[in-house]
Automatic annotation (TrEMBL):
Its cofactor is Mg(2+). CDD domains: pyrophosphatase. It is found in: Cytoplasm. Catalyzes the hydrolysis of inorganic pyrophosphate (PPi) forming two phosphate ions. This is Inorganic pyrophosphatase. Its main location: cytoplasm.
């Protein structure tokens, strides 16, 4: 069985076009995580707070970030896909975040194969409302979990996202290649 974290390349033209492996679905409260040892998607927990994912959420293959996990990616979609779905996506920005004292940034991306997102080239093309919804979700989704604190630190442009992806690729190579 293919291991989507180790066997799938970062993307067909990374960092400009990446693969996003979906774990969590837009509109749901289930927190799925890909378990590379199975390999497969497992239910990690149900979110304690009454919030739902603002879009499909997962990780970038062959990446490893400063929080010692595969690099997180939120792909803006109109309709949810499914856990384990691989989306070819264009990074458009980076949301900087602190999760309980750890740097836990999120790449914001759009699907290559959805013409409804062709006009989104950089983070300033994403509406303020959508960015506020994303911030609100990540600032509150752990509120009812004991001792968990999350803080959104701000938004960075497409180039910052691409630089962070390259950093995550380098960390993956250093630690796993």
């Amino acid at each position: 069985m293919t291991n989507l974290w180790e066997d799938l390349e970062t993307g067909p033209d990374a960092p400009d076009v990446i693969y996003a492996v979906v774990e969590c679905l837009k509109g749901e409260r289930n927190k799925y995580e890909y378990d590379k040892d199975i390999p497969g998607v497992m239910l990690d927990r149900v979110l304690h707070s009454n919030v739902h994912y603002p879009s499909d959420y997962g990780f970038i293959p062959q990446s490893y970030y400063d929080d010692e996990d595969p690099f997180d990616v939120l792909v803006l979609v109109k309709d949810q896909t499914f856990p384990g779905c691989v989306i070819e996506a264009r990074p458009v920005g980076l949301m900087e975040m602190d999760d309980d004292g750890e740097k836990d940034d999120k790449v914001i991306a759009v699907p290559v194969e959805d013409p409804r997102y062709d006009h989104i080239e950089d983070i300033e093309d994403v509406t303020d409302q959508k960015k506020e919804e994303i911030e609100e979700f990540f600032e509150t989704y752990k509120n009812l979990e004991a001792g968990k604190e999350v803080e959104v630190l701000g938004w960075q442009d497409k180039q910052a996202a691409k630089d962070a992806i390259e950093h995550a690729q380098d960390l993956y190579q250093e630690n796993f290649a």
